[in-house]
Amino acid sequence: MSAPIASPRTIHMIEAVPERLEGSPRQLRRFWSDEFKAFAVEEASRPGANISAVARQIGILPSQLFRWRRELSGDGEQSSALAKEQQPRSAAIRAVCI
Fold first, then answer.
1. Is residue 79 over pLDDT 50?
2. Which pLDDT tens digit goes with each residue over 21-76?
3. How many other C-beta atoms can be found within 10 angstroms of the C-beta atom of residue 29?
4. Distance of alpha carbon 80 from alpha carbon 72, whole angstroms
5. Nearest residue to 41 via CA among 77, 78, 75, 82
6. pTM over 0.70
7. 79 Cβ partners below 8 Å, 6+ apart?
8. CA separation (Å) from 21 to 17, 24, 29?
9. pLDDT for the residue numbered 23
10. What is the CA radius of gyration of the chain?
11. Which of 14, 52, 54, 90 fits a disulfide with 44 by CB distance 3.0 to 4.6 angstroms?
C-alpha cells in the first residue's frame, strides 16, 4: 500500500440561519373544499385503493386523507350530514379532477 498523502485541511464555518427571514412572506395554508375532501375520501375508499397512492395523486399527505376519512365517517351529525350532502356532487367533481 502507498502512504497516505498529507493534504491541507480547510475548515468551513457555517452559520445557522432561520428558515424564514423576518419580513419574508409566510407560505399560505391550502384550504380544500368539502366537495374535494368527499371526492378524495371516496377515491380512497374504493376496494383495493392504496390511500398513500391516492394522496400522492391529488397532492396531499396520506395523514391528511386519513383525517378527512375519519371526519367524514364519524358518528357525529355534522359528518354524516356532510357525507350525504356531498354524494350527488361527487360525479361532477370526478369529471373535473380526472
1. no
2. 566 566 677 888 999 999 999 999 999 999 999 999 988 999 999 999 999 887 54
3. 5
4. 7
5. 82
6. no
7. 71, 72, 73
8. 8, 6, 18
9. 61
10. 24
11. 54
Query: Among positive and negative, which fits the CA dihedral 85, 77, 71, 30?
Result: positive
Give residues with Cβ within 8 angstroms of 38, minimum separation 6: 72, 82, 83, 86, 87, 89, 90, 93
Q: Which residues contact 17 (CB under 8 A, 6 or more apart)?
A: none
- What DSSP designation does 22 have? T
pLDDT band at 13 (very low <50, low <70, confident <90, very high): confident
pLDDT band at 15 (very low <50, low <70, confident <90, very high): confident
How many other β-carbons are positioned within 10 Å of the β-carbon of residue 82?
Answer: 16
3-state helix, strand, coil in the chain (%, to 5): 50, 0, 50
> Which three three-digit cell numbers place residue 28?
399560505
CA torsion sign, 46 to 48 to 49 to 50?
Answer: positive
